[in-house]
Amino acid sequence: MATYTDPSTIGTSPNDPVTSEFGTAALDNPVAITEGAAGAPRSVIKSLERLATGTQVRSQNTATFTGGTSNDLDILRFGILQIGTVNVVTTLGSGGNNTRIARLRNGTETTLGSGGAQNVDVDVIPGDTIICQGEDGVSRIYTAQIRTNGENLWPGPIDLPVEGNDVS
Q1: Which domain does 140 fall in, by range?
Q2: Could you give the CA distance from residue 52 to residue 93 in angstroms, rounded to a whole number?
Q3: Segment (H or E) for 106
Q4: Residues 6 or more apart in contact with residue 101 via CB below 8 angstroms
Q5: CA nearest to 7, candidates 22, 28, 19
Q6: 30 & 85 share domain
Q7: Are residue 32 and residue 76 in the same domain, yes or no?
Q8: What pTM does this model have?
Q9: Residues 5, 7, 11, 12: is their CA dihedral positive or negative?
Q10: Model confidence over 47-98: pLDDT tens digits?
Q11: Both 36 and 81 in a single domain?
Q12: Number of structural domains in the chain
């Protein structure tokens, strides 16, 4: 782990010479911050890469429902830790009928697409949960995907409201 050097302890005035200590701190401090070294400033969630809609699959699940209820059942539930937009796709396999894509934000669930197979771009902020559901029935198979434009997708809390955070 890199060591964090407080800039106020080394010469950082405009007329100070560039020392090896200054150079080492300039190289090590960014690494020390990302590693969470003692005394280093902490990163915040909004410093994670922003999400952009695309075709790179970052989370996927296939579910088979065998019947017995008349409810929509979860294909995929994914908690979001980042800011941006993701592409959410549901597909129908053997016997598949209707799917639903929703976003849960601050305790309020909003349906963003429903019917047959769905392809929806979803704006997300930390604390959101993406919900993909399929209609239960006799041997129905569904697949749900969350896709980005190549950005990493980091999982966050599922179904927990997050309120008052600065996510701009």
Answers
A1: 56-148
A2: 27
A3: none
A4: 88, 90, 111, 112, 113, 114, 118, 120, 122, 130, 131, 132, 133, 144
A5: 22
A6: no
A7: no
A8: 0.76
A9: positive
A10: 889 999 999 999 999 988 877 666 788 999 999 999 999 999 999 877 667 8
A11: no
A12: 2
